# Entry
Amino acid sequence: MFFIELLVAVTIISSFSCSGQKSIPVEPARTPVRFFVNYKNTVEELSTKGSYFFYKKEISNIMFKKEKAIGIDSLDGTLVSLPGFITSKNVLDSMQSHGLRPATIKELQSFGIEVSLTDGFGIVALGSEVIFDGFKSVPLILDPKRGPALGLYPSEGKWNGDYYYFLAIPKKVTKK
# Structure
């Protein structure tokens, strides 16, 4: 049922804007957008701060308990878009080849809080995969008319590149 609700939400994608937020165009961001993540916040707290009108109680810190990042970080988020119907593996391979990693749920939520999208589409965080309703699923923010929606979507199928962008973060370079 949740899967069907998300499909309905995709069909009513529009734009959302919140005062005080940065704004980015529909085209994939070639220039990264700086945003802040406080990893001390729970998934639930970030959902409240993001004012997601649609929020399943299953989307919680318990579900994403294996994520271990701590502290506050300033990140440069890039929206990756690939044309046509693509798999999550295609997207991950593209990110890897450009020195990027997929965002996690807390990074996605924080990005959604700070950045206003000028036209609607879904933003996916491939870095937080969980099993939900028997499917490997990833978090995404959809942008229906009522405001941003936080949901889970099966990651094993194909994505329509015309409707989804994938949030990517530069890989950290370790100094030797």
